[in-house]
Structures are given as C-alpha cells and as structure tokens.
Amino acid sequence: DTEVTQTPKHLVMGMTNKKSLKCEQHMGHRAMYWYKQKAKKPPELMFVYSYEKLSINESVPSRFSPECPNSSLLNLHLHALQPEDSALYLCASSRKTISADTQYFGPGTRLTVL
Amino acid sequence: QKEVEQDPGPLSVPEGAIVSLNCTYSNSAFQYFMWYRQYSRKGPELLMYTYSSGNKEDGRFTAQVDKSSKYISLFIRDSQPSDSATYLCARTLVAQKLVFGQGTRLTINP
Fold it and tell me: How many CB pairs under 8 A join A and B?
C-alpha cells in the first residue's frame, strides 16, 4: 500500500483566516514533504521533515507553518494568506531520508484564498 | 539553466500509437530519475524510477536513461485514452530535493 491521504480536498479561506491542512501516511515512511503546485506548473518543494524534524525549508513565507506531530502525520498551518497562495498543496512521503528515494504523493488539497 | 528541461507539449496522438516523452538534465551528480503521471486535479502518481543508464520496462511503459547525453525518456506502447494525463519527469538532487520538469500534457484520441 502506497497511500498518502490529505484532508480537506478543497479549502476556501479569507486572508484573515487560520486553517490547517493535514496529511497522513501509514507506510512507515520516515520523510514527509509539502509541495505547492500552481496550475500547469510542476510541484515546488516547500518543506521536508526527516524523522519528525524539519530538515529543509525552501525559504517559504512564515504565513505557512509546518508541523509534524508524529511519524505518520504532517500538518501545514495557514495564516494571513494572500490570493497568490491559491494552489494545489501536495503532501508526499518516502521510506528513507536520503535523496535517492522515491516519493509518493497524496491527492492534494486545492486551496483558494479570497 | 533549469535543472530539468521538458517540452510542455501539448502532445496529441491516436489510440494505439507509441508515445515518446523526453527530458534533458544539466547536472551529472549521482541521482535517481523518475516519471510521474498526473491526472487533472489529482496528485502525481509514481510510474517508474531508475538510476542507471539503459532501459527499464514495466508493462506498456519503458523508461530509458542515457547519461552520456543527459537524456531521459518514457515510452508508452499501445497507448490508451486512459493514458491521457500530464507526465512529469523528475530527478533527485542532494538533501532529498526532487526537481521536476515542466510536465508534458498528453492526449490519446480514441
């Protein structure tokens, strides 16, 4: 089973709202990732967690705040977003924490910021 | 220069045709190469991965890597309308980073 689940599927929020995206995997993977994907563009890496510790932050604005409560769960907390943050937010996981390991993606959360 | 270059298409072929999707890359560091398929409004789905030069086959799909020319390809035999999607090539960099090509939009016409 190579399933990564994400909730919610769709989210509409105002610029003053606070919301959270959730990601879960039960494959025993030790690395988890957040990506942002704009329409007709490839996914862009935002954050990487290895063994529940933040290992990579790709200079993402502080209005995006990741959290890894345990090895199966990854959250992305959103606050004071801008309309240009509207995108598909993808979570991924990989078994190993080295660069040469395949990543499995969830279905994504489609976020609209009004 | 982008790390991975991929023609965004769109590419439209008749059902049953052989499809060839291609990418070039610029960095020769040790790495894995992957092909993902992404249906509209869905997350990318891993199709194939390889790290060595040569061919790797899985059913109707063949991934080919030519490290001497820094060229990676995905061939789809006996293409089906259900193969219509965006195909993303990707390569790993250091520190768990995965770099994607722009993606090629493929349509298989019945």
Answer: 69
